[in-house]
Design a protein that fits this description.
Order of helices and strands: EHEEEEHEHEHEHHEEHEHEEH
Mean pLDDT: 97
Largest sheet: 7 strands, mixed
Strand content: 15-25%
Bound molecules: adenosine-2'-5'-diphosphate
Distance between the termini: 16 Å
Structural class: alpha/beta
Length: 340
């Protein structure tokens, strides 16, 4: 019997994440019957390739989704908010990488290693949300700990790559670095301050409580994915001059007593995790090692000696792959395997 194949659309196909979504569909041999590339009017006339063939980029409109089975969206929150309902109405299932639908109680928010069962909720609105990049890698590392020992509190600080802000941000870091080295003036367009040779404790907009939206995404999305509103979570998110991969310092207080060695043994076998933890050999997770692959690297696992039942760790993943495109394609894989 031949494998069932699907008509797939990528909305935001010309963008940073969209391009990686196309690569992930190719690499993972997703059963594609037809592919459609959608972007803004600006990109009409461009061509993108899929498995050796070239396809025109079409303008994303309300009518783009007739006969499409699955649409991967990464074209910004406003675009998702506007167009995902039309896609769903046309019978297409949307997997959306923006923050537009994540906290909608009727829309599942899925990290395949943690809550694959939630995919079933696609039936509510025809939309599944891909979590925030920083949340995804934290969940991959913490879900096994949560299942085994429970989690009371998480304190996380992030060191996030500029690729999370799209193509323009990658150019900005590159141009500013070159300008600074040559003692030239450099402009800041994407960020409010220079990002080259700098760290900005400011990702997304500031909210009334003094936190940024990115920080509150980590709090609210983690609770939704783990289905536990009792976990205390506090986050500080920082943009750093790195092109690819987010790094995170995580302090996790467990419900039961736990030793660092037990956490290492558990994470060594955990899905989606690669333990990189041999300090004597200077081995620990690095952004440049995480880039270009799909595992979440975890290391520097050690006891928090300041309180009982807490562990510190360093968690790194490619924010464009596992933090966005790969996670979305993994969700699509669950969808076709279990539900379509
Ligand atoms: P375009 O290239 O035509 O502007 P990134 O996050 O790397 O900046 O990419 C954003 C993606 O979202 C791009 O593919 C971009 O298309 C697409 N996009 C942005 N705004 C719209 C819109 N209003 N309609 C359709 N696609 C959009």
């Amino acid at each position: 019997m031949s494998e069932k194949k699907y008509n797939v659309a990528v909305a935001g196909a010309t963008g940073n994440v969209g391009t990686q979504m196309i690569t992930c569909l190719e690499e993972r041999n997703f059963p594609v019957k037809s592919i459609k590339f959608l972007a803004s009017k600006r990109s009409v006339g461009r061509k993108l390739s899929f498995k050796g063939d070239s396809f025109p980029v079409e303008e994303l409109t309300k009518e783009s989704f007739q006969d499409i089975d699955i649409a991967l969206f990464s074209a910004g929150g406003g675009t998702s908010e506007k167009f995902a309902p039309f896609a769903a109405k046309a019978g297409c299932i949307v997997i959306d990488n923006s923050s537009a639908w994540r906290m909608d109680p009727e829309v599942p928010l899925v990290v395949p290693e943690a809550n694959p069962h939630a995919v079933a909720g696609y039936k509510n609105k025809g939309i599944i949300a891909n979590p925030n990049c920083s949340t995804i890698q934290m969940i991959v590392a913490l879900n096994p700990i949560y299942r085994k020992w429970g989690i009371k509190r998480i304190v996380v600080s992030t060191y996030q790559a500029v690729s999370g802000s799209g193509k323009k941000a990658i150019d900005e870091l590159f141009d500013q670095t070159r300008a600074k080295i040559n003692s030239l003036e450099c402009e800041s367009k994407v960020y409010p301050h220079p990002i080259a040779f700098n760290c900005l404790p400011h990702i997304d907009v500031f909210l009334e409580n003094g936190y940024t939206k990115e920080e509150m995404k980590m709090v609210n999305e983690t609770r939704k994915i783990l289905e536990d509103d009792n976990i205390a979570i506090t986050a500080t998110t920082v943009r750093v001059p790195v092109f690819i991969s987010h790094s995170e310092s995580i302090n996790v207080e467990t419900g039961e007593s736990v030793l660092a060695d037990e956490v290492k043994s558990l994470l060594e076998k955990a899905p989606g995790v690669k333990l990189v933890d041999d300090p004597e050999k200077n081995l620990y997770p690095l952004a440049i090692d995480a880039a270009g692959q799909d595992l979440t690297l975890v290391g520097r696992i050690r006891q928090d000696e300041s309180i009982q039942n807490a562990i510190n760790m360093w968690v790194v993943a490619d924010n464009i792959r596992k933090g966005a495109a790969t996670n979305a394609v993994q969700i699509a894989e669950i969808l076709i395997k279990e539900y379509l």
